[in-house]
């Protein structure tokens, strides 16, 4: 680990700083104005989330269905140390989709994973679908996610942590989703925090004669509310399973950006002349106009389909991302690199810190 820190980290920071000051840092939004013109033609609002004390949203005959802007395959690639991911947000197909910065559908086996690394300026939502994952940070926090559990992490002004897979008895991979969510500019220097949500805590909505099951992780569905607010940036996160012949029309908050990621099976999206079939491992990006989205599975399908439907309030701010640092200007990114290297302004506890769970990756 000493060799790792003495060689890799200074080299990383030096190269990163050089790239920064040669203006090669990727402005992921290009500029906020250009991004909005090209991608999100709507006026933004201050953070405003329908809480469980507010009225429920229901589909009616007057509801307007959101159109599909695009649907594309999440191509598998390597990430971290030996992990395999299907990334859809954070790629040339969809650079970012405010407030969403990245979506990875990951698969990791023992010996692979995400060893010690920093973050600043964003929140991450990790949803484990299969297996188990250990996590540990430089503040001494440790824990394990099992299948069906979620972890919401706010990086704020700075955190270092590791995420490593458990050894499954059958040798199978540990599979899940990780979503990066931008923080409002005024909260990017907040204290880091964790919130875990166990699968047993997640409320469930059953509709269409039980042919559709909705796990209400965050938000609401058909009169069922999530149990608690888990992120600073308002986000709805629904895990929807549809059996053959099942249908669901799901309302969404007005003007929020929304997408769906197909985890399993073939899904029919939209109604009437807007209907289209989308296969597994695709990201479906919806237009902002409209009240509801519609999904169904053909009655003759051989298996159920499953998707994650996610929506969030857009943030009216630039996005400047360099690796794990997400700020609103190049100067802030340069400062994040400096703070990380000098163990200051949020990274003090990173000096000489090494996670127990990540040691196997550097020995």
TrEMBL record:
Q: How is the cofactor bound?
A: Binds 1 Fe cation per subunit.
User: Keywords assigned by UniProt?
Assistant: Iron, Metal-binding, Signal
Q: Which cofactor does it need?
A: Fe cation
Per its UniProt record, what Gene3D superfamilies does this chain match? Jelly Rolls
Family to which this protein belongs: Belongs to the pirin family.
Ranked from the top, the taxonomy reads: Eukaryota, Fungi, Dikarya, Ascomycota, Pezizomycotina
* Domain called Pirin N-terminal: residue spans: 83-181
Question: For this UniProt entry, which residues form the secretion signal?
Answer: 1-19
Q: Which organism is it from?
A: Fusarium austroafricanum
Which PANTHER family does the record cross-reference, listed alphabetically? PIRIN, PIRIN-RELATED
Q: Which residues form the Pirin C-terminal domain?
A: 238-345
List of residues binding Fe cation: 117, 119, 161, 163
Q: Does the keyword Signal apply?
A: yes
Q: Which GO terms describe its molecular function?
A: metal ion binding
Name-wise, this protein is Pirin (Iron-binding nuclear protein)
- Please give the coiled-coil regions recorded for this protein: none
